[in-house]
Amino acid sequence: MTDTIVDRTTFAEPAAIRAWADGRTIYVELHDGRIVGFPADRFRRLATASEEELKDVMVEVNGYALRWEALDEDITVPGIVAGHFELPPGPVDRE
């Protein structure tokens, strides 16, 4: 049996290089090449936003946060990758 020792200091938290919305899904391209998508409806402020408002996403804090200025919403990229959402999956009443 072979043991592998990994130096954990070489690992960094996931960081975004770009983000965009397609319909009600938010996509994030990470520095390591992965693309992660999540439903906007998993966050309270995004769940009630229009598709036009969702498109105004910006990458902030050196790639560690997503920002929607008009919605006053900030979400961490490591939190998204870890699956930390405010709301459970399922339909949202936008009325």
How would you characterize the overall build of this protein?
By secondary structure, the protein is α+β, with helices and mostly antiparallel strands. 15% of the residues lie in helices and 31% in strands. It has helices at residues 44-47, 51-54, 77-82; strands spanning 16-22, 25-30, 35-39, 58-60, 65-68, 73-76. The longest helix is centred in the C-terminal third of the chain and has 6 residues, at 77-82. The model is unreliable at 4-9 (pLDDT under 50).
Give the mean pLDDT. 88
CATH architecture: 2-Layer Sandwich
* Spatial order of the strands forming the largest sheet: 1-2-3
How many structural domains are formed by the residues?
A: 1
In DSSP terms (H or I, runs of 4 or more residues), the helix count works out at: 3
The CATH class assignment is: Alpha Beta
Query: Ends: how far apart?
Result: 59 Å
Report the principal-axis shape: globular
- The radius of gyration computed from the alpha-carbon positions, rounded to a whole number of angstroms, is 15 Å
Multimerization status: single chain
Question: What is CATH's topology name?
Answer: NE0471 N-terminal domain-like
User: CATH homologous superfamily?
Assistant: Uncharacterised protein PF10387, DUF2442
- Our estimate of the beta-strand percent is 25-35%
- Low-confidence stretches are 4-9
Total strand segments: 6
